[in-house]
Structure formats: C-alpha cells, structure tokens
Known about the structure:
Blueprint: H1 2-21, E1 27-28, H2 30-40, H3 42-61, E2 68-74, E3 91-100, H4 105-171, H5 177-211, E4 222-223, H6 241-251, H7 253-275, E5 280-289, E6 292-300, H8 310-375, H9 381-416
Parallel strand pairs: 1-4
Antiparallel strand pairs: 2-3, 3-5, 5-6
Helix pairs in contact: 2-4, 3-4, 4-5, 4-7, 4-9, 6-8, 7-8, 8-9
Amino acid sequence: MFAVLAAIALPLLANELLAQNEPIPKILTLEQAVELALTRNPTLLAARNSIEMAEADVVSAGLHPNPAVSFESESYPYFRSNPGPFFSNQEITARFDYEFQTKRRLKLGTEAAEVSIRKEAAMFEDTARRLRLEVRVAFYQVLLAESNRRLAQAILDQTDQVIALNRTRFEEGEISGLELTRIEVERLRFADDLFQVRLESQNAKASLLALLNAPDLAADLQVRGDLNEMPYLGIPLAATGAEVLRMANNQRPDMRAAMAEIERSSAQNRLQRAIASPNITVGGGYKRDGPDHSLVAGITVPLNIFDRNQGEILRSEAEMRQAANLFAGVRNRIALEVRQAYNALQINRERVEYIRTQQVQQAEDASRVTLAAYRLGGAPLMNYLDAQRRYRDTMRVLNQALFDERVSMFALAAAIGEVQEQ
C-alpha cells in the first residue's frame, strides 16, 4: 500500500517542485507576475491540497464496512491424558458477519463530503483572489519605487550640473563660497532621497519575488509597466455602488464557501441523526460438533439505551447556527470591502485629476523657469532650490496618488470577485 501511494504522490510532488524551481524571468509584466504566483505560491498550493484532502474524504465516506470472518474452537479436552482426535472431539465454528448501515448513512456521509469539496474549491478560489490582489499591489509598489528613483536621480543629476556651473562661477569670482556650499548641502538631501527610494525599490522587488516563491529574493528583477497607464481588469467603471455590490454577492468565492458550509453543516446534522439509529450485523456460518454438522445464523442489534449520539447531534445543530452566523458575517464584510474600495477609487480619481491639472504643470514651469533664470544669474539660489523642492514633492505626491488609484482599482476588482485578466 505504501509503495502504491508513493508511486502516485512522488510524480505529483516532483511536478510541483519542478514548477517552483523554474527561474523567474528577469523582466516581468503584471499578467506574468499574476500567472507565476498562481502556479508557484505555496499558500495557494496548500489551498489546492485542501481540495485533494476533501476528495479523499469523499472516497472514505463512500466505502462500505468491511465484513468479518471468524473461526472458533470450543470444548476440546486439552488437559485430558487422552483427548482423542482433534476435529472429532470439539466444537468448531466458522462465521461470516457483515454490518448493514441503516438510515442511508453511506449516502448522507457522501453528500456531506461532496459539499466539503465545493467549500474547499471556493476557498481555493478565494485564496487565489486575495493572492492576485497582493501580487498586483506588490507589482505596482515596484513601479512606484522605480518612478520615485528616476525622479530622484534626475533631480540629483540636475543639481550636479548646477554645482559644476557654480564651481566655475566661484573660480571666476562671480559667486561667494557660501552660495556654493549651500547648494552642495542641498545636494546631500537630494542624494539621501535617492538612497531611500533605492531601498524602497529593492524591498518592493523582494516582496514581489516572495509572492512568486522565488528561490533568490535578491535576484535582479525588472518590471514592465507605467504608473500612468491604467490597467484593464474588466470592471465596469461607470457602475454604481449598488451594482458592484450585487456583482460581489454573485461572484465572491468566499460567499460561495460560506453557503457551502451551511449546506455541509446541514448534511452533517442529517448524518448524525442517522447515526442515532443502530446498525444491524447479520452473520452466519458452519458449525461442527463432533460428528454433527450444522449451520449457524445470527443477527446483532445494539440497544441504544444510553448513547443515542445526542452529543454529536447537538454539536451539528450548533455548527448549523454557526454557519448561518458566519454567512451573515461574510456578507457584511463583503459589503464593507466593496463600499470602501468603491469610495477609494472615486476619491483617488479626483485626487489624481486635481494634482495633474492644478499642481504638476505649475511645479514643472516653476522648476524650468527658475533653473533657466538662475543659470543666467537672474534668480537667487533660494528661489531655485525652493522650486526644485516643490517640483520633487509634487511629482512624488502625483506618483503616490497614481499608485493609490491603481491599488484602489485592484481592491475593487478583488472585492467584486472579478478574475478576468487582460
């Protein structure tokens, strides 16, 4: 038996390990990252194993009781000095007994186990739903960090150009050493920004690789995408809050899992009530008593006087009430998640539009004009530095707003239960 199980399990385990050991591409798109996570993430693989265990429970629930074969020897005079022939001087009985299940126990047990498969399948889908959200957020955290890194690098490069210009001016006596020192000190702040966003980028990549179950979290990874591009997830953007809530109630896998748990607890209650009725054991066989031969037949009916499975019946009834309460809790949680994600998407859209139309252009113009004026000697250093800080802060706020808008869309897609990938 062990050899058979090993022959079945080892190829499956080898296939899973082979898939997990395949190298992660150095350049990833969002769709590739989600696909890799769905095939490699150990948490999702563990959820799939739960389905396999539920399927095994169905096999066990559908098995009939094993029959029993017994052989008895009685009345042989072992302690006499002359006991006589072995087979002719004793009672020998050979029996075959079989226990018949009453009240359709086999069918009820199988029904309860089959509902458990549906529940575990829905929980697997829910795990995949949450994993998609985690991967998408982690992917865009990398995009956010990379956008901020490019911004910090551009500002630092521009500052280095101004420092080179000021050194020439200082050597020619056009500016004081204090002004040169002041911009060099400001360069330290811009350089520190670059160090921070580099750390954010590396940590964001490590988080993404961890979700993909990569063997090396320090691997060189590049993501292909742009914060300014809105991903398409099949969500009707013009839908109202009531419409997306209705979609969530129809599509969310955790809702289906909660409903399956209600069915399972009800089926389990019917099974426990059936177990209260005793099984009947029927048997028969052959008996030899010395030279006489005869047939043996019997029936055994347990007397359920004390133990009528009262405890398990009460437990199954409590499980039914618990399943109903959990279903209500899941429904309330879904409504809250949908409403919060819907609100976040609406507000973040307005936020991005406001920053783009009211802040970005002004900050870009101020940075460009003051830089040109400062190079020509028509603007003081402080004006240039203030414009650079404002431009840096505005662009980082825009990047964060774009990230939050994308994440709110991912959260709404997850709250609805949408699984469409484009």
